[in-house]
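Shapes recur. One chain:

:::
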Amino acid sequence: MLGIIYALLFYVATLLLVVGLAFKIYTYARIPAPLKIPTTPAPITRFGVVLRMLREVVFFESLFKSNKWIWAFGWVFHMSMWLVLIRHIRYFTKDVWWWVEIAQPFGTYAGLAMILALGGLLARRFLVNRVRYISNPSDYLMLLLLIGIGVSGASMRFVAHTDIIAVKAYMLGLTRLQIGYLPADINLLAHLGLVALLMIIFPISKLLHAPGIFFSPTRNQVDNPREKRHLAPWAAKLEK
């Protein structure tokens, strides 16, 4: 029964995640950018824009310039999360790829770093007056949800071990539309339930800054207003 319930939960969550993300990205792509508004100093070539986006996505350049300690918590969280996600790929492939195998020990302790970084970001919401003033309940709930995912995952590694062989067999079965046995481990069930909840609400949450940054005109525009007139597609149609 647990296997069936969680299988249905993850199928629904995956459908909502994929459809919701596709719709949001489609919406972002269709929003016109009538003004040339890159944040200066900005690159004057398309290649420069690519480099700027790379620095922004990988190193959080603008946040680093703005606030060093917030950058530290944010960067550690995101990089740790990527290592954790790479480590979890082993549950969805029969043969573990070499680069996933290399990431295993790093991903284990990256989970702890992720929890600590999220704790720092949550403390910032409480301790910094101006941040607390503009924080909504959803801001706290998203951080608590991510912390819950991290803590429940770490508990299976460092506190109460679960049957990872059975978990992998179950996940492999889901990828083949086959429902198998899921261990009745409270930490595992909490972890999977919170992950499914995150997948469901991701397309309607502030976490959409992940794909949204690529559509930000302050980052993806070339600073060439003198050399080339910027004209939105809808404005070009009016001139014809």
Summary: The chain is about 70% helix and 0% strand.
